[in-house]
Structure formats: C-alpha cells, structure tokens
Amino acid sequence: MHRVWWTLAVWGCADLPDLSTGSDVDGDGWTNEEEIASQTPITNRYIHPYEHGDYLLGDAPFPVQDTGMFAVGDVVDNFTLTDSYGQAVDLYAFKGRWIFLTFAAMWESPMVDVIDDLPDTQAAHVDDLTVISVVVEDVMGDPPDDEDLDAWKEFFALDGIPVLSDPDKEIVHRFGPAGTYPVFVLIAPDMTLDSSPMPWELEDALP
User: Fold this and answer.
1) Number of domains comprising the chain
2) pLDDT attached to residue 110
3) pTM for this structure?
4) Would 46 disulfide with which of 72, 84, 92, 96, CB 3.0-4.6 Å?
C-alpha cells in the first residue's frame, strides 16, 4: 500500500489518476483494485498480476521509455514473449530487479548443466534477481511450441522461472549474432544492458 501512495504523491495533487471503482490507470487490462491487491504498480502497464508462475516481478511505478539498439550501457527495449502457460510476458514486468536472460536451443547438450543450475541461481538471489529462460529452437531446430516449453520447464524444474518462446528469434538476434547459441544477458534494475556473463561468472557480475 505504501507503494501506491508514493506513486500518487509523485503525480501531484493537481492531476490525480482515475481511482474510481473498476478503473485501469495504466491500461494493462487489470483494474486498480486487482493491482493493489496483488501489490503490482497501478501506473506501469508492463507490470501486472500473472495468473500462473509466481514470478518475481519488479515494482517500478513508471515504465522506462523504449530506446534503440541493445548494447552495453543502453536501455533495453521492452519485448513481449509467450510463456509456458500461454501468457504474454513483458520484459519490463521485471524492472527494478536484476534480470539474467538465457537464450538456448533444446538440441544443445552442453546447455543441460547450465539450465539445470538455474533454479539454484534463482533461489540464491530471490530478493534481487529474476532468471528467465528463453527457448529459441526445439530438438529438431524448429521453432518451439507449447509442448516444448512445458517439457523444458518440467525437465529442469523451472518453477517460478519464466520459460518463454522466441520462435522467430527476433529477440535473441538483438543480443547476439544470428545462429549463435546459447546467449546470456545480464540486465540491471534500471533496464540497462550490464554485461553478457557466462552462468559461472554471474556471481562476480552481480553487485
């Protein structure tokens, strides 16, 4: 509740948002009452409740402005990908936390040990880091489908970790050369691209 009142305070008394019953200030499809009950900000359209997943969301009251290319030090543009539950998940839903993005193809056998460690990595940084696993190809090198995402999630026990699909590879190719997998990306809480550490370098990369 403190977050809500702080958000209203920065608005100023002269231009308060519409807080009438059933209103949706940020236009994300969730009413103000639903967002307050879920402790998600009512003024950031990218952060809203998710029915499934128990994701560790950010709490920034205002969305950052989309910028340009993804390069170290730049603000990363928002993107929206579908998760293993069929939900559309925004990157900006996690603003305010460190984000470790992993892009992988299911046919990459060396990725098994890396993905297998993701639950432990998330558990060790539950207060300040969200780990996200993005699948770019299935075992045959084709775009992953819902069954592939489910299998990936279940095999590696990625409970609470968003498992997303990038079937057209539009997102992964903005972080690494085309056809090069895996790709690892560390994004700072202010959504600036911090670095591209290997998983075993993550502990040293975090503050």
Assistant:
1) 2
2) 63
3) 0.70
4) 92
